């Protein structure tokens, strides 16, 4: 029974194959002759096998080609992505360097203008330039080096010129008998806006320039409080500072100021910026008197006026009209009694009178010299950045 079953299965398997691979005859007629070709089952089986081999080879080759093409596409995509990364890095580097150059130029311009606000100038201190990590961006950054070096040279020249200007101002202040440290102490004691000078990212050349400028700015703010020039334009010097014979008692007495004589009504001007703290009739001998507080412990007094113009609390500026000359109080004739006081003590005003050597004139001259020096290039910079 089992043998019959196996035989039947063999018959069933071979039957469709034999039906497909049965011998076939092909007739070809060319118009004159009739030819017959016989293709046996073996030839057909071989042809089918070859066809399957070719089909398999084609499929394999196609898969390999597609795989190779996919790898090439992936490689090209990676190259495009790298190019996009380089382009973005180049663009960012160029924009950052351009912004840095503009910030440096704005900082230098504010320093050289001489009217910068310390807090605003501190915010403009440019950071140091860092080399980009991207190789393509480094090539672009190198193209800015020449401009950056020129700006760095200007910053060093401005710093050196500022230091020279500071030293000359220090010397001039000492010549009128004042200690320059007074003005730095006053500037520090009032506090002020936050100035981030210790930032590790700040460019050291520009930070050094700011610190030099800040010290000079503090000093020059103090200069505005130092009396400078004559309180009256045309007057006769009639009495000096110190010991003299008192005009009323004819005995030796201390004279705390100087006397400048002129007609009644001669204009009297403030000799420094400040705030009027006294505008009154003084019965201690000054008569109509005005006292101006200039800050830094410095004050000036103007006595014997015929008329007081400035009022208490008024802010006045150097050269502003504050009153008219007269002979009120303990006076023998029309004149101005003029005093300069430091920390409440009267000092000799004479060193402050010569308008040709005043600190304000020196300040203006030094500022002009610095700007002219920087305009023509200034001294060559020693060393490298």
Account of the 3D structure:
The protein is an alpha+beta fold and 385 residues long. Among the domains are: 100-226 and 364-375, no CATH class; 236-353, Glucose Permease (Domain IIA), CATH 2.70.70. 48% of the residues lie in helices and 20% in strands. The protein contains eight helices and 14 strands. It has helices at residues 2-20, 41-113, 118-123, 135-142, 145-175, 181-189, 204-223, 359-375, and strands at 24-29, 34-39, 236-239, 242-245, 252-255, 258-261, 267-269, 274-282, 287-295, 298-308, 315-316, 321-325, 335-342, 345-347. Strands 3, 6, 7, 8, 9, 10, 11, 12, 13 and 14 form a ten-stranded antiparallel sheet that branches. Strands 1-2 form a two-stranded antiparallel sheet. Helix 2 packs parallel to helix 5, helix 5 (145-175) runs parallel beside helix 7 (204-223) and helix 5 runs antiparallel to helix 8 (359-375). The longest helix has 73 residues, at 41-113. The protein is rod-shaped, with a radius of gyration of 49 Å. The N and C termini lie far apart (107 Å). The model is unreliable at 186-196 and 376-385 (pLDDT under 50).
Distance between termini? 107 Å
Secondary-structure-based class equals alpha+beta
- The backbone outline, from C-alpha atoms, is rod-shaped
User: What's the alpha carbon Rg, rounded to whole Å?
Assistant: 49 Å
Could you describe the largest sheet, including whether it forms a barrel? 10 strands, antiparallel
Strand content: 15-25%
Give the SSE string: HEEHHHHHHEEEEEEEEEEEEH
Mean pLDDT: 77
| Proportion in helices | 40-55%
Q: Helical stretch count?
A: 8
As residue ranges, the low-confidence spans are 186-196, 376-385
Number of strands: 14
| Quaternary organisation | single chain
């Amino acid at each position: 029974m089992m043998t019959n079953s196996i035989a039947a299965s063999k018959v069933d398997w071979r039957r469709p194959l034999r039906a497909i691979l049965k011998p076939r005859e092909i007739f070809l007629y060319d118009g004159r002759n009739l030819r017959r070709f016989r293709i046996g089952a073996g030839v057909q089986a071989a042809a089918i096998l070859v066809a399957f081999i070719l089909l398999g080879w084609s499929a394999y080759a196609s898969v390999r080609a597609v795989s190779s093409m996919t790898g090439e596409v992936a490689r090209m995509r990676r190259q495009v992505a790298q190019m996009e990364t380089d382009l973005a890095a180049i663009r960012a580097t160029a924009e950052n360097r351009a912004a840095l150059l503009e910030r440096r130029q704005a900082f230098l311009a504010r320093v050289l203008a001489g009217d910068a606000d310390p807090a605003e100038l501190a915010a403009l201190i440019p950071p140091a330039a860092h080399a980009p990590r991207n190789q393509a961006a480094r090539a672009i950054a190198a193209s800015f080096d020449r401009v950056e070096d020129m700006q760095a040279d200007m910053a060093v020249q401005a710093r050196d010129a500022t230091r020279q200007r500071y030293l000359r101002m220090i010397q001039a202040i000492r010549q009128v008998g004042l200690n320059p440290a007074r003005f730095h102490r006053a500037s520090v004691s009032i506090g002020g806006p936050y100035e981030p000078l210790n930032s590790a990212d700040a460019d050291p050349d520009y930070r050094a320039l700011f610190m030099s400028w800040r010290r000079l700015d503090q000093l020059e703010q103090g200069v505005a409080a130092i009396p400078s020039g004559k309180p009256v334009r045309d007057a006769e010097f009639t009495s000096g500072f110190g010991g003299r014979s008192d005009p009323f008692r004819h005995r030796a007495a201390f004279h705390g100021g100087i006397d400048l004589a002129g007609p009644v009504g001669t204009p009297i001007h403030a000799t420094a910026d400040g705030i009027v703290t006294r505008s009154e009739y003084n019965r201690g001998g000054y008569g109509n008197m005005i006292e101006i507080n200039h800050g830094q412990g410095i004050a000036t007094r103007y006595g014997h006026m015929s008329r007081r113009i400035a009022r208490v609390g008024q802010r006045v500026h150097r050269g502003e009209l504050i009153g008219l000359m007269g002979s009120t109080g303990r006076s023998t004739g029309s004149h101005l009694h003029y005093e300069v006081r430091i920390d409440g003590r009267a000092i000799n005003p004479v060193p402050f009178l010569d308008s040709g050597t005043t600190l304000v004139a020196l300040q203006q001259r030094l500022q002009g010299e610095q700007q002219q020096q920087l305009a023509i290039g200034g001294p060559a910079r020693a060393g490298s950045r």
